[in-house]
User: What shape does this take?
Amino acid sequence: MGIAVIGGGVAGITAALDLANSGYKVYLVEKNAELGGKMAELAECQMGLSPYIAKVNNHPNIELMLSSELESLSGSAGNFKLKVSGKTIDAESVVLAPGYDVFDEIPKSYGFGSPDVVPSLDFEGILKGATVSDSGGLVRPSDGKPVKKLGFIKCVGSRCVENEICSTACCGYTAKEIWVVKERYPNIDVYVFYMDVRVFGKDVDLVAELKDKYGVHYIRSRTPEVIPEGDALTVKFENVAKGTIDKLELDMVVLAVGLLPSKTLGRLAEITGVKIDNYGYIDTSITSPLETSVPGVFACGTATAPMKVRESVGLASGAALKAAVLSQRTEPIPGQEDRKYIEVGDVPPKIGVFICGCEGAIAQTVDIAAVAERVQGFKGVELVNSETNTMQDAMAAIESGIVDQGLNRIVFAGGSPREYEDVVRNACANAGLNPYLLEFVNLREQCAWVHDKPKATDVAAGLLRMAVERAKYLDEILIERYPVIPKALVIGGGVSGMTAAQGIADAGYEVCLVEKAPELGGGLNEFTELQTGEKASDVLKGLVDKVTSNERIKVYTKAREEDVRGRAGSFKARIVGDGVDDEIEFGACVIATGAKEFVPEGYLGYSKDNKVVTLSEFRKAGKYGAGTIAFVQDMGPTEGVINAKSTSVEVVSSALKVKEKNQDANVFVLYQETRTYGKWEAIYKEAREKGVLFLRYDSKKPPVFSSGILSVFDTIFNDDVQIKPDQVVLSTPMVPADENERLSTMFNIPLRKGFFMEAQERPKMVLTPVDTINEGVFICGSAVYPAMIDECIAMSTAAASRANVLLAKNFLETPAVTSVVDELICAGCGVCVDMCPVDALELTDEPVPVVTFGVATVVSGVKRVAKTGDGCIGCGSCASYCPSGAMSLKYFKDKQVYAQLDFV
Amino acid sequence: MIKTWELDPGFKYEIMKEPGGEHLTSCYQCSTCTIGCPITELVPSYNPRKIIQMSLLGMREEVLSNPDLWICLICQTCTARCPQDVGISDLLSAIRRIAEKDEEAGKLKIESPRPLFDTAFLHTVEKYGRLYDIGLAMEYYPKREGSFIAGQKAMMKDYKDFGMRMFFKGKMGPLGGHGLLKGVLPSKIKNKDVMKKIFKWAEEKEK
Amino acid sequence: MSVTKLAYYPGCPSEATALEQHISTEAVFEKLGVELVEVEDWNCCGAAEAENPMLVYALNARNLAIAERASLDIMTPCSICYYNLARTAKALKEDEKLNAEIKGIDSTLEYNGTITAKHVLDVLANDVGLDELKSKIVKKVNIKVAPYYGCYISRPPGTAYDDPDDPVSMDQLIELIGGEVVPFSQMKTLCCGGPLMMTRADIAYDMARKILDTAKSAGADCVALACPLCGMMLDAKQADIEKALNIKIEMPVIYITQLLGLALGIDAKKLGLEKNVVDTKELLGKVV
Assistant: This one.
C-alpha cells in the first residue's frame, strides 16, 4: 500500500516529500519525462525547485513514475487500486496535483503575429535563458536589437468572455518578472497596463517598490491592441486623467496570460469520479478546500483554482496530511536509521573528488575535463570523477567510492551547497562515512556564473585545490541525537488553530491547544454567515465539537503559554491560565494567533457619526434596508496594518446582499483596487449586474465624509462624485494579534509588520509557507496573512503536515557545526558570552585535569570556563573573537581554514 | 462635480429594458472599447466608456443629449473585444432609441441628422419593401435643411458627382441596371401589406 | 463540395450601386455549378438604419421564411444583410417567445430554424471549398491585392465566421487564384466609414482614406471587397474623397467574386468589371 500522488509539479513534489519524509510510501506519477511542471519553466523559480527534485530523485520512500499516466481508479478510501501506464498500484489514498494550463487563444490584435509580443510563460523562458552572466541584455526576438522600453499587458485571457474568472497569480507573477528585469537591466523603461492590481502579502510591498524605487509606470487601462509599426510596437491606452487616448512606442510587449484548468482534468474526472466545478476546476468547498467529492481522493494546487506557488505548496502539504491520516506508515524515515560510521581517526586521508556538471550550468564556462586532470595531480587525491551530470548519478558514485574504494574524504564540486549540501551529506552517511568529512565546493555561483572562459577553468581548479587541502584536515564530528517528543502545542483556538490541532491529532499525536479567550472560535465568532452562504455558527460548532471531543487534544481557554525553552523536537513551556499552571513538553509548535480588525477611529467620521460603521459591525447588525449605502474599501493608515486578501470579497458580497434584499437600494462601493481574486470574480460581476456602482479612488485623494455628504474623486470618471448615504460602511485593514511580539521573542522568529514571517529561501518564491526559520515552529492562518477561510484551513492543515514530518521522527540530530571550548586554554574571560547572538554560551565551573594560572600550573581542580549550550547556531563569532584561541568552531577549526588560505 | 442624489438611478434600468441594452451593468470600465474604437482617432473626445459610466451614474440628460451618440459607426469592434460582453454597439443603439423617444415626446432636441436619415430610409422600406434611394433623399434632405428648396440644393451638392458616376457606369438611371429606369423608380415587393404589419408591430414593441 | 443549390438574397444595393457584385456573384456560382434561386419577393433587411432589433428580426423572419419554404439556405453577398439575416436566425432559434410573437404578425413570417443564412465569402471559402475552387481555376490573376473585409464578416462574435482581427478567407482565395496578398493585416477589419457617409461624411472620408492609403503604400494593385456598402465608400465615393481631402488615390476596388470570376475564366463583361467606378482596365492586363 501507499499513497499515490498524481502530478509531479511543485505541488506534487511537496506532497510527495512531506509524505515520504514522515514514513509513507509514495508513488509519484508524472506524465512528462521530467519533474517540475510549469515551475521548471519559470525564471528564478526553477533553480529553487531543483534541490527538491533532487530530493525526490534520491528518496527511498518515493517510487517515481515518469512518463506515466493514470489510466483507471477503482476501490474506495483506504483501498484504492490504480492503473498507471499498465502498472497496478495499491494505495490507501490519492492526492491529485495535475496543475494547470496557460491561456493560449490570444487575440491577433496583440501584435498581429509579431515575435516581439510574447506571452508571459515564453518571457519567463527568455529570462531563464539569460541567467548566466553577460548575455548582453534583453533583446527583441525579431531583430536582436536591445529592448529599451518594455510593456506588460495584464488580464489577457482572464476576467473576460473566454475565461470569466481572475487568474489570481498574474499580478504577482508580472511583478516578479518586472523585478527580475529591473534588477538585471535597470535602464529598461517598464510600462504595465492593467485594470486592477491584485497582489497580496509581500507582493504588495513589491509593487509599491516597483512604482517608487524602480520607476515602473503602472497605467490603468486595459489595452486591446499592440500594433507593430516599423520596428516598434505601438500600444494605445486611455489616459483617464487627461481624457485622451495616448500612444506609447515600445520595443517588446509581454502578455500576462491567464491560468486555465489543466486539459487533463476532464479525463482525470472521468477516471477518478471527482466532481468538476463550473469553471472546470476540481470541485472543493470553502470549508473543505482539500477534499474532493470522492472520499480518500484529495486535491491541491492549481487543479482546484488558479493560485500562486505559495498557496499551491500550502495546499499540497495540507493534502499530504489528509492522505497520511488515511494511510499506514510503512517506511523508515531516512536519516532515522542507526548509522554506523567507519572510524577514520588517524588513517591517512584518501580523498575522492566528484565534479558534478549541475545539468550543464557549470560546463558553460568551465572546462570540466581540464579541471579533473589538474585535480588528479593533487597530493592525496585518490579518485576524480567528473562523469556524472545529475545528482542521482553523483550520489551513487560517491557511495560506491566510499564503500568500494575506501575513500574517507569527499570533495564535492557542483551547484549551491545551500540547496544540495544535505543531499551529499546524506549520501556520505548512507555509505558509512561521517557526513562532516565532506567539503562542498560551489562551482556554479562562485565560479561558472561569475567568470568567463578560460578564467573560469583556472578558478575552478584553484577552488578545488583549496578544498582538497582543507579536506585533509577535516575530522569526524560526533553527531548526537535526542528524542523527539511526539506532542504538539498549538497557540490560538480560532479556525486555523483548531484545524491545525485537529490535523496533528489525526496524524496520531497529542496536542495542547491554547486559546486566550474564554471560548474557541477566534475571528469566526464575528461572522453570521460565510460568503458562500453557510451559517458561520454551524461551521464553528462543527470545528469546536471535533476538537473538544478529540481525546488527543487538550484545550486550554483563557490561558497563555510562557517560558518556552528548548529546540525542535524537544520544547518545554508553561501554560498559565485560570487556576492553571501546567508544565508541558512538545516537539513542534504551531502559531495561529490570527489577526485583529483595525479600528478606524477618525476615518470618515467613524465613532463620531453613527451613520459610519465597520464592515463587521454592519454584518453583525444584519440590517440591509438602507436607501443609499456606500461601502468604502482600502481606507486606513499606511503603517502598521495590512490589507486582508479577503477584503474585496467581503465588501462585494455585502454589497450584493444589500441589493438582493432591497433591489432599489442605491449601493456604491468606493475602492482603490478591486481584489475579487480567482473564482470570486463572479460575485464582482454579479454585483455590477445587479446595479452596484463601483467608484475608483486614488490613495492620495481618499474620500471625505462631512455634513452628510460623502465626496470621492473618481479617478476613472475624472471628477468628484458626491453621495448622500444613509450608511457608510468601512472595510478596514487588519492589525497583528497582540501576542505576536511576545511570541516572536519567545520563539525567536521574526515579524514583518507585526505578522509572522515564513522561512524564505529565494527572494521571490515561497516554497515553505508555514515553516519559520526556527525549526519546529510553524505558522498559519491570519497570523501570517489574513486570507479567506478556505486558505486559512488549507494553510493550517499544511502546518499540521509539517509538524507531522517532524514529529514522525524518533529523534533529531543536534547541530554538528557548533563551537567547542578547549578548557585547558580557556581563561574564562567571558568575551565569547557577550559576543554570542543567541545567548548560547555561559561561564560555568568545570572540573579540569590541568589548570594553568599564568606561569603556574596546578593539577586538577575546578576552573571557570565557557561552555557551549544547546542553542548554538554555529555562527563562529565566539571562535573569531576568542583572544586565547580556546574557542573554536567545529568544521572550521583554524587548521582547516589555514589549509585553504595557504592555497588561495 | 456629480451630485448623485440629483441624478436618475433608474436610468440604467431603463436602458437595460431596451433590446440591446441588457448588459449595461456588466461594464467594469476597462477602456477596451474606447481604445479600440476607430472614431476616437478622429474625434478625440469620443468616449463610449464614459457614456456607459454616465449612464450607470444616472446622468440621463447629459447622456441622451450627447452629440457623440450619433457618430458611432456600429462597426462592432467594441462588441467583439469587450471582455464582459456588454455589447456596446447595441447598447449605444438602445440609448439612441431612448433619445429618439424623448425627442418624440418633446423632451429633447437631437442635433444630429442621423435619426432623420434612418427614418427616411425606413419609410421607403415600409412603403416599398425595399430601399428606394431617391425616395430616401427626397424625404431626408428637406427635413435636414428645413425646407424643400434648401433640401434640393443640398441633395444636388451631395449627389451630383456621385449620381453622375452611377449613371455613366450604368448602375442607376434610365440606361442601366436590371431594367429600364432601375434606381429611378422604386423596386417594389409584391406583398406590401406585410410590411405595414411588420412596422406596426415593431413600433408597438418600442413603447 | 457539399452545396448544390442556394437561396440567393441579393440585398438592396445589388440592384443599383453594387450591380457588379451582384452579376459577378451570379456568374461565379453558375460557373461552379451551384444553382442560385432568388429569394422570392425578398424585402430589405433593414441594413444599419433599422436600429430597433425587433424590426430587424421581423423584416428578416420574412426572408428566412421564404427560403425555408423552399428548403434552401440563404446566401447573400452583402455583409450587413448577412449580419441581419444571421442574427435573426439565431434569435428566432433561441427565443421561442420571440419566434411565436413574430409568427403572430403574419403567417408568411413563420421561420422554424431549419435553414440558415450565409455570406458569399463564407460559402466560397468553406462550403464550396478551396480544393473545389482550385480544380476549376483556369487562369492566373497575377495581381497584388489588399483584402478588405470590413466589419460584419468577422464581427460581432455571434455571427462572425472569421478571425476578428486578422481574417483569412479572402486571403486564401486571392492566393488560390495566383494573386499576392500585400501586408494589410491592421486595415483588414477597420471600418470603412460607410454608416456615417450620409450624416458625417467628414469622418467617413477619413476612415476610407486610411484604408486606401495603406493599400497604396503596401503596393497593392487593387483592394478586394466582399461588401457593397464598403464598395460604396471605397469605390463609388473615391473621387469625392479625393476632392474633399485634396489627394490622389486612384486605387481600383473590385469585389472578390469579380477576381475569382476572372480566374474561373469568366468574361470580364459578364463580371461587370466595366461598372466598377475606379477604372479596372489595368488589372485585366494582369490576367494570364
